[in-house]
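Sorry, explain these C-alpha cells?

***
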Amino acid sequence: MMGLTQGGMLLQILFIALFYCSQHLVSAANPDQHENCEFWANSGECESNPKFMLENCGTSCETVAAQKLEDAQALAKIGSFFDLTAKDIKGDVIDFKQFQGDVTIVVNVASYCGYTDSHYKALVQMWKYLSITDQVHLLAFPCNQFGGQEPDSNEEIQDFVTSNYGVKFTMMDKVDVNGPNASMVFKYLKSQANIGNIGWNFATYFVVDKEGGVTAHSDLNGNEDFMELRKSVLRLADWQEL
C-alpha cells in the first residue's frame, strides 16, 4: 500500500467496495420459489415488479441482470444493423451488409398464433407493393417463445407459409426474441428502438432505414395499420406509390 499513488489507492478501495457489495448481493438473493421464475425474469418482471421478483425469484433476476450486462458489452461492439448476420430458414448465413442503402422490415412470426392468419395475409399483400421497389427487404423470424406457437421444424414452417399463404419474402431461422438466448438481431433492434421485451408474435415490426436507423411499429391490427406501415416504408425508400 505504501507505494500506491492516491489515485491508485482510491481505485483499489473502489474495487474492494464493489467486490464486497457484489458478494453481499449474491448471498442476499432469494432462491427461486416458483417454477415460472425464469420465464418471468426473461419477460422483464424483475424491472416491472421488483419487490415480488426479488423476494420470490432472486436467482433468476440475478441471472438476467448478469446477462444484460454481458449483452450491453456485446451490443457496444456492434456499429450498426449492417454489422449483423443471421441464418435464413434453410440454414444459410445472411450478411446484413447487403441491406445497406435499402429499407428492412424485421418481425417475429408463428404458425399457430391467433394472429397468424390475419398477419400473414397482410404481410403477403404488403409485400406485393414493397417487392417491386427492389429497395425493401422483409425478414420473418419464427419464434416458439410465446405459448409454444411455433413448434415445427424450419422445413415444416416453410412448407406451411408457402402452401397456405404463398409467402415469397425471406423466412429466417427460428429464434428466441426475449431473454438470454435471444437472437443478437433482436437484442440489437430492441436496444435501438428502446423496447424492453417483445410482447408476442407479430407484436412488433422493426423498420430499419437506409442508414441503419431503427423504428418500432407495435400492435398492428387491421388493413389501415398495415397500410400506414407500407406508406412509412415506401417513404423511407424514397419510392412514390402509384
Observations:
- The chain has a mean pLDDT of 88.
